Amino acid sequence: MANQHAHQSINDFKQFVKKHPKLIKEVRKEERSWQDVYENWVLLGENDPIWDPYKDKPAEGQEAVPEAADKYDFVSKMVTAVKKMDVNQMNEQINKMSQSISSLQNLLSQFSGSGSKQSQTGSGQHPFSFRKD
Q1: What is the CA radius of gyration of the chain?
Q2: Domain region containing 94
Q3: How many CB atoms lie within 10 A of CB 117?
Q4: Whether residues 53 and 81 fall in one domain
């Protein structure tokens, strides 16, 4: 079973090297060893940006379309998320978080021994000041 897995791993590595012909040139020039390339491939995976300089450049326009589509997809997801946000709920959550942080600061100041100083100066104030527009 382990031998079969090793054989499959080697075949996957061979396919990877075929997709990155500049790696072959670098190994033949003795700038890198196959062992080094294989170990990096196992540790980092074949989608790591370290392999980008070794890829064959695709014909004009082939790679630009998916990259632009990925950027557009991310931007559209962000716009959709912003549209779905309810400003009132967001403000309410921020206020609750601010009150929780203030309570935690008061609790910590009581245990640290400097509670009397901060409780006099910071009573009623929130660590974040937010206003409604």
Answers
A1: 28
A2: 77-108
A3: 10
A4: no
